[in-house]
Design a protein that fits this description.
331 residues, alpha+beta, twelve-stranded antiparallel sheet, 4 helices, 12 strands, globular
């Protein structure tokens, strides 16, 4: 090992002050090494801290994941989605053909119908009426009411006739015969429960004073290519719906029957009316159809004595729901 420089000075020169100087130099040299190393380590540590822009951690978990994005999908007034996997004209042709089959099946069934009107603004009440919808020999659908309605409305006053007129409104059935009356605009895809659907905006080509048309949107199941939901209103050259009821926009859900037909079984509408005392009142209409059964000769008989009847919305149908894939919302 080569002797340290201060040791050479110690051997070749006198002792005394030089020894003291050598001792000081040795201490200075040997202390400079760890001090310089410490300064270097501190500088490196500070560079890492400033480079990371955050305080040093015992364990760095890595970069944080960005927050999740929540997208709200709405149907725009003029949608511009990409093309569907099936040409639009073919989709329309096929769901219209399924509407033809569904309507024929639906017209072969009678069913029970419950109609409920609710005042959702406190103090609220209800108007409930139920009966059987059947087909007369002339092909008209009628609601046969066999008992008085249950009514405890607090802020409004509606009659059985008002409710019956609402029940007479035609369903949104877009058969092959009806397709030429409308303009269809593809609005994209949407998910309903476990169903993947194609959405179409529907608008009549022209209005009439003699009949009501549908204006709104329909959801078409991408597997069966049949309508499973509709949302919209009835439009004509005449305003209003012929009753005191405020309801204008109707949301109709369908249920699957025998894994072949999709039948409209649940219709809901929310709206508001102005009340002089209470201001704006929130109202809800729910129409629920259940207990479907094939019509027989006895079902076309006249209404029994004491029972009232009224034509109901018809022209659209399917069989009794069983094993549905889409569940209507809770009433």
């Amino acid at each position: 090992m080569k002797p340290h420089r201060c040791m050479d000075d110690f051997r070749q020169r006198r002792k005394g002050d030089r020894l003291n100087l050598c001792t000081e130099n040795c201490i200075q040299v040997r202390m400079e090494l760890p001090v310089r190393r410490l300064i270097w380590l501190v500088a490196v540590a500070m560079a890492v801290v400033f480079a990371s822009g955050s305080p040093a951690r015992a364990q760095d978990p890595g970069p944080m994941a960005p927050p999740p994005k929540f997208d709200v999908h709405r149907i725009p007034a003029q949608p511009h989605p990409g093309p569907p996997p099936i040409p639009e004209s073919e989709l329309i042709r096929r769901f219209a053909a399924n509407e033809d089959v569904m309507k024929k099946e639906y017209d072969a069934y009678n069913f029970n119908r419950a109609i409920r009107i609710e005042e959702l603004t406190d103090p609220g009440g209800k108007f409930i009426v139920s009966g059987e919808v059947y087909t007369r020999p002339d092909g008209e659908r009628f609601l046969r009411v066999e008992k008085q309605p249950e009514a405890n409305l607090k802020q409004t006053d509606f009659t059985l006739e008002d409710v019956r007129i609402i029940a007479q409104l035609p369903l949104f059935i877009l058969t092959t015969e009806e397709i030429p009356n409308y303009v269809f605009t593809y609005a994209g895809q949407d998910k309903l429960d476990q169903l993947n659907t194609y959405v179409f905006q529907v608008k009549p080509k022209q209005l009439s004073r003699k009949r009501r048309y549908f204006e709104g949107a329909v959801w078409v199941d991408d597997h069966d290519l049949t309508i499973v939901k509709s949302y919209g209103k009835f439009v004509s050259e005449l305003t209003g719906n012929g009753t005191k009821l405020p309801f204008t926009m109707f949301e109709t859900f369908r249920e699957n029957f025998q894994e072949k037909y999709w039948l409209p079984t649940y219709t809901r509408s929310d709206d508001f009316i102005e009340n002089e005392k209470e201001g704006e009142l929130h109202m809800r209409l729910v129409i629920r159809d259940t207990e479907f059964k094939l019509a027989g000769p006895a079902d076309a008989s006249p209404s029994p004595a004491g029972a009232s009847s009224g034509a109901t919305g018809g022209g659209s149908t399917s069989s009794a729901p069983s094993g549905t894939s889409q569940k209507p919302p809770s009433p």
